[in-house]
Amino acid sequence: MLAGGMAIAALLIYLSVMLIAAHVGRRRRGRIDHHTGMRFILWAGAIGPTILLLVLLLTALPMMRPIEAGARDLAIDVSGEQYWWRVRYRPPGGPAVDAANEIRLPAGRPVLFNLSSPDVLHSFWIPGLAGKMDMIPGRTNRLVIRATRPGRYRGACAEFCGRSHALMRFTVVVMEAQAFDRWLVKQAAPSPAALAQSDARALFRDYGCAGCHAIQPDAIGRRSIGPDLGHVGGRGSIAAGVLPNEEAAIAGFIRHPERTKPGIAMPSFDFMPEADARAIAAWLRSLE
Amino acid sequence: MSVDPQDDPAVRRAQADRLSAVWASPKGLFLRWTDTNNNRVGAWYVITAFAFFLFAGALALLMRAQLAMPDNDLVGPSTFNQLFTLHGSMMMFLFAVPMFEATAMLLLPQLLAARDLPFPRLSAFGYWSFLIGGVFVAGSIFFGAAPDGGWFMYPPLTTEPEQSGIGADIWMLGLSFIEVSSIAAAVELIVGVLKCRPPGMRLNLMPLYAWYILVVAVMILFAFPPLIAGDILFELERLLDWPFFDAARGGDPLLWQHLFWIFGHPEVYIVFLPSIAIFAMVVPTFAQRHMLGYAWIVLAAVGTGFLSFGLWVHHMFTTGLPGISLAFFSAASEAVAIPTAVQIFVFIATLWAGRVVWSTPLLYAAGSLAIFTLGGLTGVMVAIAPFDWQAHDSYFVVAHLHYVLIGGTVLPLIGGLYYYWPLLTRRKLSDRLGKIAFWLMFAGANIAFFPMHFSGLLGMPRRVYSYPEALGVGGLNLASTIGAYLFAAGMAVIVLDLVWPRSHPPVVRNLWNAGTLEWLAETDDTNWGVRSVPIVLSRYPLWDDPDFLRKVDEGRFYLPDAEEGKRETLVTSVIDAVPIQVLRLAGPSIIPLATAVALGGVFILTTFHLYLAATISGIVTLALILFWLWTGTGLQPEKPEKHVGLGLSLPLYISGSRSAGWWAMFITMMGDATAWASLVFGYFFYWTIHPVFPPAAAPGLAGPGVFWPMAAMALILAGWIGTIAARELYARGVVLAARLTLVAATLLSLAGGLASLAGPWLHGLDPARHVYPAIVWVLASWVSAHVAAGIIMQLYCLAGSFAGRLTPQYDGDLRNITVYQHFLALSAAITFPVIGLFPEVAR
Question: Which InterPro entries does the protein's record reference (chain B) (predicted)?
Fold first, then answer.
């Protein structure tokens, strides 16, 4: 609304300035005298803009007040890290839930984001829902968002953060509030596929993947180095919004992460047989 | 009526021959580079800055090729990041600011009917520094070693050597070198405007261009030092691991953002106002009337300069500021639109009240208006914090800043090129090619940058080397790419027009029928500028006095001759331009080039961690500077006074606050004090962000104590008083007592400088542990380094006194170093209570 109003006003002002300029440039006779010229400068240059800017400022000031969120609202800690997003849901009264690179929100409720970064500057931006807020080492910034319409929204890092800055994206899924509550309860528990013994689960452990990527129940209480993969099968994409959540893409990413994301911290597993990578990928996809 | 010797054509011819001989440029393959005259050096400067502009533009074309299609892989991210970093940095530091200084160097003496700027060798030094630093920074891309952190180089990405490599050092040290030369140029331009105006040209009669130059140079003087202070902290973190921006050890990345944008926002106006200044000359000429509302436009320019220092936080709206800051800086940012609007409507009103003569320069002015106004309106939009939260760091901002800079800097400069080319070369550029280029660039700029508003609002962040097809901005980006290449085609037409050989005869003098003094320049190769320095009593003397041109040409004003074979120009008083001195100017010299090479060595060798070689280079620089000062400044004239024409005799030497050298020292120290104040700001910034600052005592974290800082302050103040006493004694002719006092002052200063370091040293402050010891060390070292420079000055004066070049009559050096001592005393009187007493209060 603010943007639309400003755009229309800007267009009108622009057209009037151009019309005056064109008129001045075309005219052959009928020059204005000194007195009229000075009055024109006073009104068009000084008084007019002052009034317009004052109106704009008074309209905009109330919008600078942040939306309120209380202790009974959901809080989500998001940490921007080169080049992915660490997410922790802190529902009031419930257990904290770890996730990464995809954020789900309840429609109609205010949600408090606590934004931080352990490495370099990032900026948290969901263009369809809110303005951006920087993530600054040593500080925690607060941003409250109330999403109204269910749907999928794109998010991106908006502050240049290194080689793969362009590839630091995420997805926001706004759900109906009740559906969100049910989903969050499910997320708090380990995925059924992660509880069952399987070859792929052993491979994941033996290759050392679990050293960085937490998957409950194997990683309770440990802060993982890389993205939490406990429920990665339910996400729309992998590698921070860059690759589709498909078996081939995951397997390829495991073996050559550097090809997808230059400068990524994850070491490359090019020595891993394709079959093992595929098996791990298939297992990860089953972690709903 | 008595017979005027100027009536005799033979006398006039002999005078002109002598002037020609004195002002002749050195010739020959090597000697020509020793030239210091503003015409030649200014031309080199313009050409070099233009070449960097084309280079930086070519980098942008590579970026646009990469972004033409989604998920493109023409260049990888590491190249792309170097491309946009270098594009922005070069356009700002190697094109926009130097181009302002270059055009000012070329035009200002002409506009003021001065024979040259007051410090020609400083101009040449600035040029060579710019060339060396610029080639160093720009050339890094060919080795894949260019900086890649974005042109604002936000830490901690850029301060960690693992993340940023040598490119960050090249940026910091290479551009710091250029910033120093920018400040040198600013000092020279300020002194030029204030002290080298023609007799009678009071401040309110100055050409508008000179007003803008004064405003912009003052802005450079106060805007660049905070960045230099930031650069110092930045390099100390990179080279010595002092944690100014490392949150884990008490630092804060936001301090860099503050220091950068305290520089960065005025910078926007530093590159915009000089181009508007060109229009302030073009518009009256093509309206064929005086500028309407002279006072309005001067106040608007001063107001813009003033306000621009209060807006920097709007670049940080997304860093999580409290609401009150958002409201204040939104309002301040809106306010700056008002003086800008005044300037635009003054131009329109002047054309409206005049008789519009359409020409290529005026076409560029109209095009600039159309593009700049749109950029200004989106600027009003992004100044509103809630809108900025969306637009910030997105392509919307990229669109906004390019509209502002193309409309506010690039097109005006091209318009100015078509306007002033006949003044510089006696030839006119092609109107046809100029118009073709204009329409290509005008269309190109709009096709390239208008769609970016939408790409940004659709969610495309800036500084991305790639974007997904699903974002839906592929078509918009393709349009942007096409527009960018169209714009480049227009620029190619300009280059073609510039190099096209011309056979048609030279144009007439003042072919646009302008009213201001620069058009006095004769179209022959006359480096002297004006034939005689006129008395100026109106703003457009060429229009107001039909005889003016003839009288100047016949040498009927001041300094029509160069009897002693020396380069000379008039120095006048600051407000009323009463002539007070004939200033002898330096001629061709190799010293500026040699000094620039040596100083460049210090910065470049440090980049590669070759500290021993850098130190040697630094010693050579110091030796060259001393040689430069000793052989070329404060020279005693062969006679105290000289007859300058119209029955006026003026001294050849003046000292103290009326002299150009005193003003240069004073102005330089204003800039220096600003850098120091930025460091003190840093100290208190850390105090505000930490609940306990200074931190609780621990090994390496104790403060410098009270005793040593207070002792340092007392000793340095005693050295300051001693220097003042020496000056007073010297002026009264008590030479021996003055020398002894100066020796005592030097020793007191030395003791003070050492005591300053003794505090942090004896208390074992470890600057790599925490930001508190680091900032204390920086403040103490800053004062000590200034004491060291002060001691060199004191010894220089002592040596001058013994060598007979400093006498009670010719005591300019002693008076100038006293100005330095005033500022040193000020910094000591504040720094030491801050580091010594403040911790006692804060605890």
Answer: Cyt_c_oxase-like_su1_dom, Cyt_c_oxase-like_su1_sf, Cyt_C_Oxase_1, Cyt_c_Oxase_su1_BS, Cyt_c_oxidase_su3-like_sf, Cyt_c_oxidase_su3_a-hlx
